[in-house]
Amino acid sequence: MKKRFWLAVFLMSVAVASQAADGPTQERGRELFESTKLGTNGKSCASCHPGGRKLEWAATFDDGKLAGITNKCIDKALKGKPLDPAGTDMQSLIMYMKTFAGPGK
Known about the structure:
Number of domains: 1
Shape: globular
CATH architecture: Orthogonal Bundle
Strand content: under 5%
Organism: Geomobilimonas luticola
Protein name: Cytochrome C
Distance between the termini: 52 Å
Number of helices: 5
Number of strands: 0
InterPro entries: Cyt_c-like_dom, Cyt_c-like_dom_sf
Keywords: Heme, Iron, Metal-binding, Signal
Largest sheet: none
CATH class: Mainly Alpha
Oligomer: single chain
Radius of gyration: 18 Å
């Protein structure tokens, strides 16, 4: 009986960890922000916004508007393919960009 209980606890913890890994994270957002793989010209978001420069306003926009602005940059500045606005990568990127908000957020 004890073995079944601990097996069930283990399986539930694995399921919860798996679900958490599939959701948006700031760490994934940072990786995307610094990655040159969002585009085709060797640049990243950090190329134009080192340390989040000029993104202090990011937290003032709703996620939909910020996704649109971000995709415009990916398309034009990075020469890349826009991300799914509702996808995990875009949500992670938005989550990370909002960390650059100024003190008045």
